[in-house]
Design goal:
The protein has helices spanning about 1-20, 35, 190-195, 225-240, 300-315, 350-355, 355-370; strands at about 25-30, 45, 50, 60, 65, 75-80, 90-100, 110, 125, 130-135, 140-145, 150-155, 155-160, 185-190, 210-215, 250-255, 260, 280-285, 325, 330-335, 335-340, 370-375, 385-390, 395-400, 405-410, 415-425, 425-430, 435-445, 450-455. By secondary structure, the chain is an alpha+beta fold. The protein has three domains: about 25-160, Jelly Rolls; about 185-370, Peptidoglycan recognition protein-like (Lysozyme-like), CATH 3.40.80; about 370-455, Immunoglobulin-like, CATH 2.60.40. The protein binds zinc ion. Zinc ion binds next to loops.
């Protein structure tokens, strides 16, 4: 009886292992212009090429079935065509989805994926990855030609895929270098977000010395119940649709602040429009540009981004406030830059993330240093205050040539004065033994009263 029970346990266990479905299901729909745009006077088929006549109206495909069986947990779609990438010829592609073929969701514009090197985008177009609910059964394409030009295509196709539900979610906390100011946040490594092993690292990686940290957004969905599946989708799209040897980014961050490992640290990525040498690429998952009203990255995502950028800045001795020449692009770039700074015409990382980069640089700098001095609460203009970081000191200096007797007080937020002394021209206050957090320095003189708020990190 006991043996029989064990036998069945073993059987079920084995069955469980062998019945493990792979993550990815894929299918490609090639748009057949002779039937999928049937009897449309705008479409002329010439041998293997398709010519669309000029029109002021969008050209609509038939309503076509999505060729996936039981996709989980969502569907992705990537449009590809061989034809004009010239904006003078083509206004826009768009796609929409339906669960029943009768009721249709809004049209989703399809923008070109600008992470591809410029030279590869001359004749081949790959659209950004589009996400849709798994319950959708039908799709329809719209082409908006420019009114005065005819367009020729060799082919148009939509690559559909589903990444499968994540098998397990684990997060690894890397061993922390206790001497580090900015330890790396917890990470989902490759085996965590792709536990069936279907997303291998690229073979023959090229290594680079990182001087610039490039921030992206995924331009994908802002809500998901399975972010590891979103990361797998991006891996699959980069590897199987673009033909790259690994996911393009070095790191990805979801709205919960979870950090995912992409290409390993210091492996040259594929994200900066072909100018990847010297860069780290980090992608904040979500669309921070097109949503209306605009969506900003979550505070948790920004915090992880800042800690990652701080970790890498410390590791590579990068000044997060600096601008440096970036040889691969030939540009003088901020060391923490947005993808759009490449000049490739992309909106990435989206307006509502891009406008946060100045604050992110300052915050990363403040994380790197033991003291941050925030704007004075009250300032006579005669007292300057600066951190001298090596000694963990704060320097107070009276800038007038006349030096009256001055007095400073260190005050905790409770109002308790924990240290005070007189000084004349300048003085250094050692803060080594003060606890982390906020305190105030009050400087009192005959004609001056200054209050500074200090954050010790
Ligand atoms: Zn980007």
């Amino acid at each position: 009886m006991k043996a029989t029970f064990l036998f069945f346990c073993a059987l079920f266990y084995s069955f469980g292992l062998f019945a493990q479905a792979p993550y990815f299901t894929d299918a490609i729909t090639k748009i057949d212009f002779s039937t999928d745009f049937q009897q449309n006077p705008q479409v002329v088929k010439k041998t293997s090429r398709i010519v669309l006549s000029p029109s002021t109206h969008p050209l609509l495909s038939q309503k076509l079935a999505i060729p996936l069986q039981n996709p989980e947990p969502f569907i992705t779609a990537a449009l590809q065509y061989d034809g004009p990438s010239d904006e003078q010829l083509l206004e826009q592609f768009a796609i929409r989805f339906s669960k029943d073929g009768l009721n249709w969701a809004n049209w989703i514009p399809i923008y070109e994926d600008m992470h591809i090197p410029d030279e590869s985008r001359q004749s081949n177009f790959t659209g950004q990855l589009i996400f849709a609910q798994a319950t959708n059964k039908y799709f329809q394409l719209a082409i908006y030609p420019k009114a005065n030009k005819s367009i020729e295509f060799d082919f148009i196709q939509v690559v559909f895929s589903a990444p499968g539900k994540s098998q397990k979610i684990t997060t690894t906390t890397p061993s922390v270098n206790t001497r580090s100011v900015c330890p790396i946040p917890s990470v989902q490594y490759r085996g965590d977000w792709c536990s069936l092993g279907e997303c291998p690292y690229g073979s023959n990686p090229a290594y680079t010395t990182v001087t610039h940290l490039i921030v992206h957004h995924s331009a994908g969905e802002n809500v998901s119940a399975d972010w590891a599946a979103v990361v797998r989708s991006i891996w699959h799209y980069h590897v199987d649709t673009h033909g790259w040897n690994d996911i393009g980014y070095n790191w990805l961050i979801d709205p919960n602040g979870v950090l995912y490992e992409g290409r390993p640290d210091n492996v040259r990525g594929a994200h900066f429009s072909g100018h990847n040498t010297g860069t780290l690429g980090v992608c904040v998952l979500g669309n921070f540009h097109d949503a209306n009203p605009k969506i900003s990255p979550s505070p948790a995502a920004i915090e992880t981004l800042e800690r990652l950028l701080c970790w890498k800045s410390e590791k590579e001795n990068i000044n997060p406030l600096a601008t440096k020449y970036h040889a691969s692009s030939g540009l003088h770039l901020k060391t923490i830059a947005g993808h759009r700074d490449s000049g490739s015409g992309t909106a990435c990382p989206g307006d509502s993330l891009y406008i946060q980069l100045p604050d992110i640089r300052i915050f990363v700098d403040s994380l790197l240093h033991p003291v941050s001095i925030f704007s004075p609460i009250k300032n006579s203009g005669l007292i300057t205050i600066s951190p001298t970081l090596a000694q963990n000191n704060i320097q107070l200096r009276y800038t007038s040539p006349y030096h009256p007797n001055l007095h400073y007080q260190i005050i905790y937020p409770s109002g308790k004065i924990v240290q005070q002394a007189d000084f004349q021209e300048d003085t250094a206050i050692n803060i080594t033994n003060f606890p982390k957090g906020m305190f105030f320095i009050k400087v009192i003189g005959k004609e001056t009263l200054d209050i500074f708020r200090i954050i010790k990190n």
